């Protein structure tokens, strides 16, 4: 780009008035390989790093990036590979494929599998290939939804391309050596399978004969390399059409073709060699043809096969090919005439002195009427663009309601914006929708500008482009030398009302389960008012309700769209009032979604009429959030219907957005269900005995949240029930309007009839609603901070208490200054192998109840009476004591304990990161997956090597699905799984796998046969084995339990092989299951013989060097104290026993405000 100077001025330098582009600005757009960009249906934009072989992902419209993990070759030798050249995401967003070219080494192809979170990806498979990948296309995707913006009727399109009945994650690759490779996972297989065929000649391959062929050069000195490719998946057609563009490159001279000569000798070259050298062209231009090939994928019931049929080539002009795409006409009737067209964009640089001349050509492809296997290709139209250079063309997605291509025209010159204007962006071109096959501008669509940074217009021309999931935005990649620069451009809109266009796109996105972020981005533009946003959402919700009959699923999806749209609106607007309004609206939608999630959690944790006690602490957390939400709503009711009762307004808009929870039928049902779930859970915990696992601690915590909240749930529920029943008469259109605006405008009279009844003193304790007991405590240090609570003009000043924090330095001093007794806190102990975790707590509770460290002086005095002692021996003491995640009797290591108020902090250790070290003994499988259980079956183990185990470990790294063992306490339909197994009752359904994350898994030590571990002597009887078989066969009719004979290997030891693993895992991970599944993966059976937990959150066995880590207290300290009486225990000058001093040095004191 060069700047055209203006006329000279006097006194100061005059700003440049215009800019002009040069041919060099456009040349990078035709170079290969181009920097790829991909926009997934979950709204993640994937790009390659400008200099390194890594892939970056960014969730639109967030600025936060993440990097995908690299396959092993790129980790060990990153300098041997170039930046990624191909990125492709599967339609279901579960898989990602990429190709990295190599520097004098074969390139690397890699597949990633996505986890539960959008930014969690793991390498699933990879391989090297000398032939580079040019194009990747996924097949076997689901049917697409479209919505006519005029009629508003949603329609589902048929399948495109061949079906894949026995494979998943199926992708078709086109390589530089003009081959097509089918990569796929067969159901149940652990690795990708591949079939390859030539695109230049008829070929056939199947799973039993697949091999990779190589193309030969056309002549002695050149080779054809495919540089561009496009694939077409047509409706109602199993054939795949592949279009390729090739270029000839010179072959390097081999050692046999080059002989050093003596420069002093006379030159006498061979005449034949001279002829060959003379025939080599000076410039190796790309070929002036586009090669076509029909690819067919078949399945005969046993094997998959791949067949290719080359088609007649398309002869084109001698010009540089910029883009090549297929445009497929959507059709819903198999008999309807369909259209398949190839659109190509060309550059002609001529003498490289001016900007290139660009043209677009359209070719039609149709089956021959005489021969169904033959195709007829014709050029339909050609168009030159004099007003600029067409730097890209890309097909319109069918969901946009049109059939054509988007053309980006960059101007050759333009006006340079003045610096005083302070414009961030300036137009440098325009976007057009071109009709197919005429390539004329579609008159139904507007033209939109291409914007670039004002400081460099005409530079960094777009080299690649991708449309957003819902065809509302374009993401372009510029030709920057060092970094990958992306920018967003708005796709032209229809010449219809924006309400109809955007609502149609929303309907198609919601029905297709795609992210709607790109549509919300358009809706949240500062030029659109809240009323326009509400109109678009109402129109969308109306179509969805008519289509799905207002189901609960579509309703929560509608709430999600409101949440996303108003949240983006709040972040993008600069007007204070609009930002506050949008903030209030998205918070309402967020609360509705949160309540729905809480209700789903309660449903998932129910076992008949009761609740699963394994999830008790999670349900306590959920109940705490619901009670906090209900208190907030009660405060709002007091301010709206009681304190302001003398100043009621009849203005329909004068109503808080929070009241939507009580005005909308589905929202009120949500609130009612949440309150009823908390009440039922409170009653359930109250009925449990103190001996139930964690029940007593959970019950105390929940009582603090529910019974002391100031809200009588039994009195609130009937009123909410009556309110919900009365809302059934609300007009559906009115309810949609309230939801779309996240505000129940005009609902005052309806709410005024029911809500004031909640404010009765017997139902609501106002003092507790507004002021918590902790707010009334006197602070212990200096000046107290004040916080202001604003609620529509009313201010409540609350004195906040600030407690001094006890640091670890203070605790480790010889004479620690202890805060007011008794104390509460968290500390870790080193659990020994053998006893259960609960038995250790039962031993510690009398000890703690008799210590002034944890018991109040009044409690200690009461314990002096004989009656109190007998009661304490029976109940175990009055001090609250709990654990943050149990350990099996076999296991040893970190066990986190909570004392007093510290028990409320234990839930954080259930889902925290944990580290283990375990020993696996091969050849034997037990019912409990460890050595404490009974032997179920034996399997060969002598064939297993250290390398086999190391290779199999990769299957269990990252985000994995883990199935709990059938001999476990996990309940199904109210009955533990082990009862099904022991009684021979068939499982009612398969055991649901759980998503867990294995952050690190490593083989620490290979013991081989050098150990003393043995298989368990106890075995399941034949009757017990048949019972287990019968239970499993309820979901797997072919399941059997039988011993497998050992393979005789010469020189192998008769002692079963053992090895040690170390791992870092997420909460909820079954270590025993990892060992069990790993043994199966190497063709054997195995069980755990040792298990040590070395870390649980911040509590560790040994010093790790990390700042916040805390070492655990040895159990020997407590065992010594338990063996002594309280009178015989030695105390220091401050009155502390040895175990109390140790606890003070290790405990993390909890001060609750």
UniProtKB/TrEMBL annotation:
Q: Which Pfam families match?
A: TruB_N (PF01509)
Q: Where is the Pseudouridine synthase II N-terminal domain?
A: 879-1008
Entries under InterPro entries matching the protein? PsdUridine_synth_cat_dom_sf, PsdUridine_synth_N, tRNA_psdUridine_synth_TruB
Per the UniProt record, which EC number(s) apply here? 5.4.99.25
User: What chemistry does it catalyse, as a reaction equation?
Assistant: a uridine in mRNA = a pseudouridine in mRNA
Q: Top-level EC class, please?
A: isomerase
Recite the UniProt keywords alphabetically: Isomerase, tRNA processing
One biological-process term from Gene Ontology?
tRNA modification
What GO annotations for molecular function exist for this entry? RNA binding; tRNA pseudouridine(55) synthase activity
The record's section on SUPFAM superfamilies has:
Pseudouridine synthase
Q: Which PANTHER family match?
A: PSEUDOURIDYLATE SYNTHASE TRUB1, TRNA-PSEUDOURIDINE SYNTHASE
Please state what the protein is called.
Answer: tRNA pseudouridine(55) synthase
State the organism named in the record: Moniliophthora roreri (strain MCA 2997)
């Amino acid at each position: 780009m060069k700047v055209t100077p203006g006329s000279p001025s006097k006194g100061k330098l005059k700003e440049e008035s215009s800019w002009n582009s040069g041919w060099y600005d456009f040349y990078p757009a035709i170079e290969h390989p181009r920097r790829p960009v991909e926009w997934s249906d979950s709204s993640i934009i994937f790009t390659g790093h400008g200099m390194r072989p890594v892939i970056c992902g960014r969730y639109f419209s967030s600025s936060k990036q993440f990097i995908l993990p690299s396959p092993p070759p790129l980790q060990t030798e990153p300098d041997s590979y170039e930046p990624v050249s191909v990125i492709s995401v599967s339609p279901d967003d579960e898989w990602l494929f990429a190709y990295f070219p190599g520097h004098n080494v074969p390139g690397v192809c890699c597949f990633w599998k996505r986890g539960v979170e959008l930014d969690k990806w793991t390498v699933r498979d990879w391989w090297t290939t000398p032939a580079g990948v040019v194009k990747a296309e996924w097949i076997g995707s689901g049917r697409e939804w479209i919505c006519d913006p005029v009629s508003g009727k949603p329609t589902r399109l048929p399948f495109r391309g061949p079906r894949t009945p026995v494979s998943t994650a199926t992708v078709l690759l086109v390589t530089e050596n003009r081959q097509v490779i089918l990569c796929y996972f067969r159901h149940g297989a652990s690795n990708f399978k591949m079939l390859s065929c030539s695109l230049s000649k008829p070929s056939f391959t199947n799973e039993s004969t697949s091999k990779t062929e190589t193309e030969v050069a056309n002549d002695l000195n050149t080779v054809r390399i495919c540089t561009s490719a496009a694939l077409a998946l047509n409706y109602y057609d199993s054939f795949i059409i592949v279009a390729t563009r090739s270029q000839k490159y010179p072959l390097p001279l081999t050692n046999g073709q080059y002989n050093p000569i003596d420069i002093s000798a006379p030159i006498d070259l061979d005449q034949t060699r001279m002829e060959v050298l003379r025939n080599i062209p000076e410039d190796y231009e790309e070929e002036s043809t586009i090669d076509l090939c029909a690819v067919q994928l078949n399945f005969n019931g046993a094997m998959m096969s791949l067949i290719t049929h080359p088609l007649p080539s398309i002869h084109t002009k001698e010009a540089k090919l910029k883009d090549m795409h297929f445009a497929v006409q959507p059709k819903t009737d198999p008999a309807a005439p369909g259209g398949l067209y190839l659109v190509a964009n060309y550059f002609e640089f001529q003498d490289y002195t001016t900007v290139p001349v660009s043209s677009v050509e359209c070719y039609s492809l149709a089956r021959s009427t005489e021969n169904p296997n033959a195709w007829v290709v014709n050029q339909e139209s050609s168009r030159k663009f004099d007003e600029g250079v067409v730097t890209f063309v890309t097909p319109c997605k069918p969901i946009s309601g049109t059939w054509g291509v988007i053309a980006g025209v960059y101007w050759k010159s333009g006006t340079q914006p003045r610096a005083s204007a302070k414009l961030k962006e300036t137009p440098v071109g325009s976007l057009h929708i071109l009709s197919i096959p005429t390539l004329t501008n579609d008159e139904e669509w507007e033209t939109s500008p291409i914007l670039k940074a004002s400081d460099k217009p005409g530079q960094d021309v777009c080299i690649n482009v991708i449309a957003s999931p819902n065809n509302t935005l374009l993401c372009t990649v510029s030709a920057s030398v060092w970094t990958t620069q992306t920018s967003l451009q708005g796709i032209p809109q229809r010449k219809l009302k924006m309400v109809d266009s955007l609502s149609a796109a929303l309907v198609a996105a919601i029905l297709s389960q795609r992210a709607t972020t790109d549509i919300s981005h358009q809706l949240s533009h500062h030029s659109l008012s809240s009323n326009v946003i509400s109109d678009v959402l109402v129109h969308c919700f109306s179509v969805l309700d008519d289509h799905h009959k207002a189901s609960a699923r579509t309703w929560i999806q509608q709430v999600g769209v409101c949440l996303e749209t108003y949240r983006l609106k709040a972040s993008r607007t600069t007007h204070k009032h609009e930002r506050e309004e949008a903030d209030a609206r998205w918070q309402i939608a967020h609360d509705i979604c949160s309540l729905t999630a809480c209700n789903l959690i309660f449903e998932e944790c129910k076992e008949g009429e009761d609740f699963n006690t394994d999830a008790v602490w999670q349900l306590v957390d959920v109940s705490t959030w619901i009670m906090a939400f209900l208190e907030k709503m009660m405060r709002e009711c007091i301010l709206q219907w009681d304190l302001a009762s003398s100043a009621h307004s009849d203005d329909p808009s004068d109503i808080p957005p929070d009241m939507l929870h009580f005005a909308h039928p589905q929202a009120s049902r949500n609130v009612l269900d949440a309150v009823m779930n908390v009440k039922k859970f409170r009653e359930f915990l109250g009925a449990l005995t103190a001996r139930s696992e964690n029940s007593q601690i959970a019950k105390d915590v929940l009582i603090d949240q529910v019974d002391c909240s100031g809200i009588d749930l039994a009195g609130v529920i009937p009123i909410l029930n009556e309110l919900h029943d009365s809302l059934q008469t609300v007009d559906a259109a009115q309810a949609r309007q309230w939801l779309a605006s996240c505000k129940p405008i005009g609902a005052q009279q309806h709410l005024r009839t029911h809500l004031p009844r909640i404010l009765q003193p017997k139902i609501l304790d106002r003092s507790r609603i507004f002021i918590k007991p902790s707010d009334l405590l006197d602070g212990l240090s200096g000046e107290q901070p004040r916080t202001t609570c604003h609620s529509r003009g009313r201010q409540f000043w609350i004195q906040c208490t600030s407690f001094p924090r006890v640091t670890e330095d203070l605790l480790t001093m010889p004479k620690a200054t202890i805060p007011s007794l008794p104390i509460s806190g968290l500390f870790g102990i080193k659990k020994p192998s053998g006893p259960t975790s609960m038995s250790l707590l039962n031993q510690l509770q009398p000890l703690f109840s008799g210590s002034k460290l944890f018991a109040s002086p009044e409690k200690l005095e009461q314990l002096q009476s004989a009656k109190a002692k007998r009661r304490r021996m029976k109940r175990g003491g009055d001090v609250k004591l709990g654990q943050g995640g149990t350990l099996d009797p076999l296991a040893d290591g970190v066990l986190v304990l909570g004392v007093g108020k510290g028990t409320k902090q234990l839930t954080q250790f259930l889902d925290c990161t944990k580290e283990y070290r375990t020993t696996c003994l091969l050849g034997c499988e037990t019912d409990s997956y460890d050595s404490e259980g009974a032997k179920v079956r034996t399997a060969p183990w002598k064939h297993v090597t250290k390398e086999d185990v190391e290779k199999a470990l990769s299957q269990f790294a990252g985000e994995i699905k883990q199935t709990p063992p059938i001999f476990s306490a996990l309940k199904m339909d109210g009955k533990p799984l082990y009862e099904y197994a022991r009684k021979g009752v068939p499982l009612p359904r398969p055991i649901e796998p759980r998503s867990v994350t294995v952050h690190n898994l490593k083989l620490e030590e290979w013991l081989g046969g050098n150990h003393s571990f043995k298989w368990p002597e106890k075995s399941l009887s034949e009757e017990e084995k048949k019972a287990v078989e019968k239970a499993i066969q309820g979901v797997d009719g072919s399941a059997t339990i039988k011993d497998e004979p050992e393979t005789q290997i010469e020189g192998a030891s008769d002692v079963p092989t053992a090895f040690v693993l170390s791992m870092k895992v997420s909460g909820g991970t079954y270590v025993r299951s990892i060992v069990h599944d790993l043994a199966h993966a190497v063709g054997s059976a195995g069980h755990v013989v040792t298990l040590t937990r070395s870390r649980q959150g911040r509590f560790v066995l040994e010093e790790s060097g990390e700042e916040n880590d805390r070492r655990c207290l040895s159990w020997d300290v407590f065992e010594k104290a338990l063996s002594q009486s309280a009178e015989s225990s030695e105390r220091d000058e401050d009155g502390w026993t040895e175990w109390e001093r140790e606890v003070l040095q290790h405990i993390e004191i909890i001060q609750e405000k």
